[in-house]
């Protein structure tokens, strides 16, 4: 499943960086954004996950987010998430960059996580920046407990800029690693899509784990065409043997 070359690279690696996308949570039952059962089929994304929707149609906006949160509250990390906790412990320096907002890497127990697109389990005040944990049972339009202004889910909405500090850390972790592993991402959404190329450009061994071919596959040093849970549990067994 893993080449001897990759095993040697991992054996000698001090710094490893991982990028995850919606695919790692697919086996937990988190719906993807697109595709036949995608979240966005009923309403176009431009109408829902935007600051304009929050301002102009707040009820529709919050019905959508409250529905997603209710769904996520019942969902648990899968073997792929847990394997990444073991993998983090194996390396001296490990960074987990995720495009997911579902909190499952934190639930599983990873420590050094960069949430590029934010976290749906929190709300942020649009006026005073106050950050609060959301209540999964909440319905209606929430307001800030401190200043009364509108809240927004602490995620990057379409048209929002990314948190520049987190992005800078992700770029840095990509540029210094010896092995970079891209897992369950279609590698199409920028700026995350550039991170594997930053890694490779700086000499990292680039690994992709995805059952489907992606925009990244042709550039990877090794492609593992398997589900994340299967590939990552196998990887933890290899690391156990190397220890
Ligand atoms: P994507 O939907 O574009 O791509 C998902 C990828 O996962 C596909 O390439 C697919 O082949 C692969 N995949 C499917 N099942 C897999 C499995 N079991 N193991 C490994 N790979 C598997 O997702 P993306 O690249 O993350 O980009 C979409 C955007 O949508 C991101 O911005 C992300 O923030 C957001 N999103 C987040 C969540 C979440 O938080 N769980 C869910 C949906 C979308
Ligand atoms: Zn406030």
How would you describe this protein?
Helix content is 38%, strand content 18%. The longest helix has 16 residues, at 58-73. The two termini are 19 Å apart. It is of the alpha/beta class. The protein is built from ten helices and nine strands. A six-stranded parallel beta sheet has the order 3-2-1-7-8-9, with helices on both faces. The protein has a three-stranded antiparallel beta sheet with strand order 5-4-6, with no helix packed on it. It folds into two domains: 4-29 and 77-117 and 162-242, Rossmann fold, CATH 3.40.50; 45-74 and 126-155, no CATH class. It has helices spanning 4-12, 22-26, 45-48, 51-56, 58-73, 79-90, 104-108, 164-176, 195-201, 228-242, and strands at residues 15-20, 93-98, 113-115, 118-125, 131-133, 151-155, 179-183, 205-209, 222-224. The mean pLDDT is 92. Helix 6 (79-90) packs parallel to helix 10 (228-242). Helix 9 links the parallel strand 7 and strand 8 (205-209). The structure holds nicotinamide-adenine-dinucleotide and zinc ion. Residues 125, 127-128, 130, 144, 146-147, 149 line the site of zinc ion (ZN).
């Amino acid at each position: 499943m893993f080449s001897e070359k990759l095993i040697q690279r991992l054996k000698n690696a001090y710094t490893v960086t991982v990028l995850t996308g919606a695919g790692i949570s697919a086996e937990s039952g988190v719906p993807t954004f697109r595709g036949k059962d995608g979240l966005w089929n009923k309403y176009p994304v431009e109408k829902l996950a935007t600051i304009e929707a929050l301002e102009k149609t707040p009820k529709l906006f919050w019905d959508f987010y409250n529905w997603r949160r209710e769904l996520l509250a019942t969902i648990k990390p899968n073997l792929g998430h847990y394997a990444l906790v073991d993998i983090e412990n194996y390396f001296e320096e490990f960074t987990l960059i995720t495009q997911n907002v579902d909190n499952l890497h934190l639930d599983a127990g990873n420590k050094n996580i960069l949430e590029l697109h934010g976290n749906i389990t929190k709300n942020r005040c649009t006026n005073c920046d106050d950050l609060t944990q959301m209540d999964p049972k909440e319905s209606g339009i929430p307001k800030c407990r401190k200043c009364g202004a509108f809240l927004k889910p602490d995620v990057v909405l379409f048209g929002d800029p990314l948190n520049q500090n987190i992005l800078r850390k992700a770029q840095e972790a990509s540029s210094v690693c010896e092995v970079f592993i891209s897992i369950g991402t279609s590698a199409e959404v920028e700026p995350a899509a550039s991170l594997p190329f930053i890694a490779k450009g700086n000499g990292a061994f680039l690994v992709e784990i995805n059952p489907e071919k992606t925009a990244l596959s042709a550039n990877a040093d090794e492609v593992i065409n398997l589900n994340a849970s299967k590939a990552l549990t196998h990887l933890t067994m290899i690391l156990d043997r190397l220890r």
